Amino acid sequence: MSTYLGAxxxxxxxxxxxxxIEAARYSYLEGYLFDPPEARRAFAKAAxxxxxxxxxxxxxxxxxxVVERHRAGLLGFIETQCDIVFANASxxxxxxxxxxFDAAVKAxxxxxxxxxxxxSEHGSVVIAGGQIHEIxxxxxxxxxxxxxxxxxxxxxxxxxxxxxxxxxxxxxxxxLAAAEVIAHYGPRPQVSLRDxxxxxGL
Length: 202
Description:
alpha/beta, UDP-N-acetylmuramoyl-L-alanine:D-glutamate ligase, 6-stranded mixed sheet, 2 domains
């Protein structure tokens, strides 16, 4: 896969609308945008606005290659500007230059309020306030296309968080959304995630 980010590489700080950021309980930043310098300035502006309004910033690490290119910058941004970090196992290990998954997750959790790390069929790990929540993956009949799985996990998780749900439930909502999207081609759900959550008692 050769990722094409399209017009978003033209994102600048001028595109960050203070009213939108200040009104949002959580602003979700895409790690791929750590490549363009102008986008990093937009990240900094968004983080400043969010925290000034008592809101929170979430970021996804997006890709282990992004992490390797910008490790120092990402670590600095995470430690000083982020509240919630989403990553997968390879990304979090790349961030801390280790093969020890548990050590990498702990190192990330020490820097943010919430760390949510996915690990494919083994589910995910959510750490906050020193508490570790292990979340099971939802079984799918056949994995067709993993495109969008990380973003769908984050979407489900942040939805739960915005509704005041517990962290284990947030993780389950994320896992459910990810399971739906990997069962077909394309990065967007093909059924109502709300209905799926209701069916699962979430």
